Description:
By secondary structure, this protein is α/β, with parallel strands linked by helices. The protein is built from five helices and five strands, in the order βαβαβαβαβα. It has one domain: 3-Layer(aba) Sandwich (Rossmann fold). The chain has a five-stranded parallel β-sheet with strand order 2-1-3-4-5, with helices on both faces. Helix 4 (86-95) links the parallel strand 4 and strand 5 (99-102). It is globular.
Amino acid sequence: MARIMICDDAAIMVKSLALNLTKMGHKVVAETSDGQDAVKSFREEKPDLVLMDISMPVKSGMDALKEILKIDPGAIVIMVSGLGYQETVLQAIKEGAKDFLIKPVPYDVLETCIHKYVPAPTHV
């Protein structure tokens, strides 16, 4: 079971991701709606993986990504955005994101991506 943080200003997206991650057997340790809170929650929770929107109020996901990687250069941050422009994807990867998902994220795509970076929970 991985400890995962979700950062997105769209409440419906947070709810959907949280539901799907829970179905996969992971634990959502924090939900934030802006980049500033994302950085604060990352420091407090030290999650195994972060799902981060790009367009958020207060501080963008790209800025939060940079700050999180300063705190922990090995942090696993996957950008999740409706902005699927090639230059945005390339910029996120260049800045240190491990992967990039386009909204809406189908369950199987999310599961495959998550399990590239954290092990799938074993059910006993």
